[in-house]
Amino acid sequence: MSSAVYTARIEKLRDRMRETVTDLVAVGPSRHMTWLTGIDPHGDERPVLFVVSQSWAGFLMPGLNVDSVRQHTDLPMIPWSDAEGPAAALAQVLAKTGVTTPTPSLVLDETMRTDFSQLLLRALPGAHHRFTEDTVGWLRARKGADEYALLKASALLNDRACKAAIAALRPGVTEREIADVVKQTYAAAGATPEFTLICFGANGAFPHHHTGDSVLGPNDPVLIDIGGRLNGYPSDMTRVAHMGEPSAEFRKVHAVLERAVQAAVAAAKPGVAAKMVDHAARSVIAEAGYGDYFLHRTGHGLGLDVHEPPFITGNSEQILAESNVFSIEPGIYLAGKFGIRLEEVVIIRNGRAEILSELSRDIAQ
User: Fold this and answer.
1) For the residues 222-241, what does the mean pLDDT come to?
2) Which DSSP category does 26 fall into?
3) Contacts of 150 (CB under 8 A, 6+ apart)
4) Cα–Cα distance list, 301 to 238, 310, 361 (Å)
């Protein structure tokens, strides 16, 4: 993305900081930093911070990384050396922010190293601190048009990868071999795999099965949960297939989950609490008698991270907003038999949930 995108994001953060009465935001080497600046610096034990106030935004940066990072941003940097340590450089950073109140309102990156946070808190002993949920996280959950386009392209590539996996299914193939087909599809498009869960037979009843050397039998069900990263943005989708004729029970469970997906998609609108989307899916499953076999939340946000807010759980009061992106993935897991999960990633656009994938949720045979 262009530097103008990151400049605009920093200004949006400042607007949000005013709305939330926040004096200072500090993020470490993380997706938060990448989203705000486009920078993904080398990460080790040496403190790296990106700090934003109303009057200044810049980096605390190890001196040995400055020249490398400078190739990718014009944002200011205060360097420090191994011989001197970061304390004096951090004091310069804080002086440049113009924050003089002895009890500043400080937002800390919840994903950065604890020792980085402690360094900052020791320098601001009177700070009232919290995490990024109502500032950087709030902004990241509302995708811009550029992010929508990248997520859509990644989803369409995932469709192709899933089709390739299904086409490669035959008795005698292993889970690992199908995962390789998926990875090859990503590689051919310049993408990298995030995860490849290929589950044959009863392995589908493990929601987080580790793809292995299980061999596909002539009458086995198949669960395919895959995601790749294209141009920095991931995908996530789950579909099912079946060798031979699916059993009546398999078809029944699939039909229940199809209704659950449709109910959750219909419920996902701006102004609705996330828990109501979970409730919509869960109610369909419970009414069909499978409530005890739906073992996880209905979904999670998707952006630079595969899992990020909003989380679609039964107790989440978070209010969904226009341009939120998240998964809807109800599942039913029958131990020793099979598991089925149908997963879509949706974006709330124009007051409704729009599915990014264009691949059918029907049982592939």
Assistant:
1) 98
2) E
3) 230, 231, 232, 233
4) 15, 5, 20
Residue 2 reports pLDDT greater than 90: no
Average pLDDT, integer, range 216-223:
98
Rounded (10°) angle between helices 248-267 and 274-287: 150
Domain 145-355 has CATH 3.90.230.10: yes
Report which of 102, 40, 89 is spatially closest to residue 65, judged by C-alpha positions. Answer: 40
Q: What 3-state DSSP class applies to 351?
A: coil
127 within 8 A of 103, measured Cβ to Cβ: yes
| pLDDT score for 42 | 81
3-140, what's its fold?
Answer: Creatine Amidinohydrolase; Chain A, domain 1 (3.40.350)
Domain boundaries along the sequence of the chain: 3-140, 145-355
- Asked if residues 280 and 263 have their Cβ atoms less than 8 Å apart, the reply is yes
Encode pLDDT of 249-282 as tens digits: 999 999 999 999 999 999 999 999 999 999 999 9
